[in-house]
Amino acid sequence: MFTDTLWTLLEEKLFSLPSTNILFNAYHESNPDADLPDGHLIRQENFRNYLNSFDREPPLLVLGEAAGPWGCRFSGVPFTSEEQICSQDFPFSGKQSSQRASPHRENTAKIFWTAMQSFHPNFFVWNCVPFHPHLLEDSLSVRSPSGEELIRFYPLLKALLSLLHPWRVVAVGRKAEQALRNLEYPCIYVRHPSHGGATEFRAAIDRIMSNL
């Protein structure tokens, strides 16, 4: 099963990597100002639950840019919020890793899964930069990953593509498209669902899934 091989790959190539002062590895450590003490282990478990929701290799890979501060940063799953994985009507379950009174919610995650949930498990979601990029002195800020940061994770992305060998790859946003083009991997670009892109994103996904 591809999920076991992928889990081993992530244990070796991602979970053990330390954060930097502008890139946070949410699977490796917990921030005492924002996370529960074992937050990073909760996020690993959440991602494992996500993997366990697959019974076969999905034909589609949906690739985002990087972990966002209110979604994957706390849930451990790209384009997914804590609020979603803690709900009863989601394709897989999870736990809250933040120390907030209530789980984090993210508008982009809501838009994404509103468009995608009916197609699960026919797609797999990942980020070309699996860390959370942030500003130097603001660990929960939003920052687009740099070109050098994309390049750093090319080996992991190549290994993922080789393992999944998806029939099609969807690049959500220009940075994801750039990463795939640089790896000479064919992809379909769709607009990122944030900042007014929700309608275009949903329409593009419907077109793509109707042709799978």
- Helix count, DSSP H or I runs of 4 or more residues: 9
Uncertain stretches: none
Ends apart, CA distance between termini: 22 Å
CATH topology descriptor:
Uracil-DNA Glycosylase, subunit E
The total domain count is 1
Radius of gyration over C-alpha positions, nearest whole angstrom: 16 Å
Helix content: 25-40%
Give a count of the beta strands, DSSP E runs of length 2 or more.
6
N-to-C SSE string, H for helix and E for strand: HEHEHHHEEHHEHEH
The CATH architecture comes to 3-Layer(aba) Sandwich
Q: Could you state the CATH homologous superfamily?
A: Uracil-DNA glycosylase-like domain
Sheet with the most strands, sense and barrel status: 4 strands, parallel
Structural class: alpha/beta
Strand order of the largest sheet: 3-2-5-6
CATH class category name:
Alpha Beta
Overall pLDDT, averaged?
Answer: 96
Strand content: 5-15%
How would you concisely characterize the structure shown here?
With 212 residues, this protein is an alpha/beta fold.
What does this structure look like?
This protein has helices spanning 2-13, 39-51, 72-75, 82-85, 107-116, 147-152, 154-164, 174-182, 198-210; strands spanning 23-24, 60-66, 123-129, 132-133, 168-172, 188-190. The chain is α/β, with parallel strands linked by helices and 212 residues long. The protein has a single domain (2-210), classed as 3-Layer(aba) Sandwich (Uracil-DNA Glycosylase, subunit E). The strands form 2 sheets. A 4-stranded parallel sheet has the order 3-2-5-6, sandwiched between helices. Strand 5 (168-172), helix 8 (174-182) and strand 6 form a beta-alpha-beta unit.
